Amino acid sequence: MSSIFEEITFTADGLVPAIAQQYDTGEVLMMAWMNAESVAETLETSQVCYWSRSRQSLWRKGETSGQVQNLVELRVDCDGDTLLLLVNQTGVACHTGRRNCFFRALRDDELKTIADIEIDPGRLYKN
Amino acid sequence: MSSIFEEITFTADGLVPAIAQQYDTGEVLMMAWMNAESVAETLETSQVCYWSRSRQSLWRKGETSGQVQNLVELRVDCDGDTLLLLVNQTGVACHTGRRNCFFRALRDDELKTIADIEIDPGRLYKN
Description:
The structure is a homodimer. The first copy, chain A, is mainly beta. In chain A, about 10% of the residues lie in helices and about 35% in strands.
């Protein structure tokens, strides 16, 4: 087992926030949470696995939708309480069918949608 | 007051994670937490203000060190539970004197330091 687990400070709930960034463009795709088990699985498989707080279960990103994230590199911040995942995103990261989850920008004091839907969510979650 | 507060889902503690990204290079600088007051101050002043969980007080980034973050754009994710701050970072974001906080990368199963100290921390916090 990697010694990285000694360097990660998990919350009282055993979680750590993880930022997914497209490794070559720098685009911030999403932020989600991981527990030790999901970190271990991600490192073993090189496919990103989060922890779903709503479902209280491992969340193998793209398992249903096919929009997987291949891990390129895992980084840890200075305090050990946030992870940065450099990934190669297949298709789209967001369940809305947009490339990334941060598609609402505050402009002129209003949230504007600044990214188009690239894949119909109905196609992503058709089962 | 901006309607953005209706779109942000704060934790039970009244906080929301905020990722700071250098607006022009895409570099992920750091992740910290904000409460409603710090979001409001950030929008009013265009200088990023976080909430320090350790000090339980507003954390005006760079107030002591001079390493301020000017807000270029604020974005909200699909669930409203994470913010992405596009900023222009003066100097370095990390208290270690490195440009960003994610300077440790897992390579060959070990965390390697991949960024140099650009400013002596002793100079950043000399008072």
